[in-house]
Design goal:
This protein has 333 residues and is an alpha+beta fold. It folds into three domains: 151 residues, 2-Layer Sandwich (Nucleotidyltransferase, domain 5), CATH 3.30.420; 98 residues, ATPase, nucleotide binding domain (Nucleotidyltransferase, domain 5), CATH 3.30.420; 69 residues, ATPase, substrate binding domain, subdomain 4 (Actin, Chain A, domain 4, Alpha-Beta Complex). A six-stranded mixed beta sheet has the order 3-2-1-9-10-19, sandwiched between helices. Strand 15 and strand 16 form a beta hairpin. The two termini are 16 Å apart.
Length: 333
């Protein structure tokens, strides 16, 4: 029986297989037939269909803000990924540890367990995202020493202070990568009367997006639809414009970090001042974010090595380390 760990993200799903490492990285996107809800494509193939499908097919993300929005579609997606990493026999039903955002409701926790078992897992255990991200980023969470992790994914931003293997204080914001993309779409629409899609907005964020003038990266040309005449249009967009577009959302994230630090017990705050703030998740790659957080908090801020994989690596370490494994409670069918 395989032991696997899943970082079930709003934007991407990563699967860690015991003894093999991260075996799968796929977008959390599923394309289905509109009427029958039959799955047509999953992952990268489905993401290529976003914004391009005919009326008979719908490409969707079955998770929103880090929680399951479409139960059956999420189960189909996980079932597809289980087959890719475990094979397709009854003997290959995996033992699964799966991530959840901190502070989700009991109903949301139960939904994640149910959907994982429905997808074919033999048993399932939950781990909170900040703990997995911190372990995967190399923080010594078991120590009697305060550390801070900021994990910015597609649907949620998790800000947490950890000590002695647990979360002392945490803030879970439903502002993250997806909201940044939406802010870019709204800005281009407002300023240029041009409509762009999610894929173009994400490309702008990754290629020239910055949150600090020192990290600006020039300009790029994009195509969209002119809302005044309905025709295709090409415009040039700069880093400074993307920074302006994302400013409100970035401010919320930075403010939540500052507020969490203000509420941290003095002894732990002193530890964090010494050890610094760790950034993980895809949002950690936003140019200049570490500079901005350092400037606002006065605390050294570092980006995790391989921030996109931090959560998956963290679950992987728990799976590989039998000592830690004992503290995980599994639920079976």
């Amino acid at each position: 029986m395989k032991s696997i760990g899943i970082d079930l993200g709003t934007a991407n799903t990563l699967v860690y297989v015991k003894g093999k490492g991260v075996a799968l990285r796929e977008p959390s996107v599923v394309a289905v037939e509109a009427k029958s809800r039959r799955v047509v494509a999953v992952g990268s193939e489905a993401k290529m269909m976003l914004g391009k499908t005919p009326g008979s097919i719908v490409a969707m993300r079955p998770l929103k803000d880090g929680v399951i929005a479409e139960f059956d579609i999420t189960a189909s997606m996980l079932r597809h990924y289980f087959k890719k990493v475990s094979g397709n026999t009854i003997m290959s039903r995996p033992k699964v540890i799966i991530c959840i955002p901190y502070g989700v409701t009991e109903v949301e926790r139960r939904a994640v367990e149910d959907v994982t078992l429905e997808a074919g897992a033999q048993s399932v255990a939950l781990i909170e995202e900040p703990i997995a991200a911190a372990i995967g980023s190399g923080l010594r969470v078991e120590d009697a020493r305060g550390s801070m992790i900021v994990d910015i994914g597609g649907g949620t931003t998790e800000v947490a202070v950890l000590s002695l293997g647990g979360i002392v204080l945490s803030t879970s914001l439903r502002i993250a990568g997806d909201e940044l993309d939406e802010a870019i779409i709204a800005y281009i629409k407002r300023k240029y009367s041009i409509l762009i899609g999610d894929v173009t907005a994400e490309m702008l964020k990754k290629r020239i997006g910055s949150v600090h003038p020192a990290a600006d990266r020039g300009a790029v040309s994009i195509q969209g639809r002119n809302l005044l005449n309905g025709l295709p249009a090409i415009i040039s967009v700069s880093s400074a414009e993307i920074r302006e577009a994302m400013s409100d959302q970035v401010q919320h994230i930075v403010e939540s970090i500052r507020t969490t630090l203000e509420n941290t017990p003095p002894e732990l705050a002193s530890d964090i001042y010494d050890t610094g703030i760790m950034l993980s998740g895809g949002g950690a790659l936003l140019a200049g974010l570490d500079l901005l957080i350092s400037r606002v908090t006065g605390i050294r801020t570092v980006i995790a090595k391989g921030p996109i994989d931090s959560v998956a690596f963290g679950i992987g370490r728990i799976i590989e380390t039998e000592g830690l494994h004992g503290s995980i409670r599994y639920r079976t069918r």
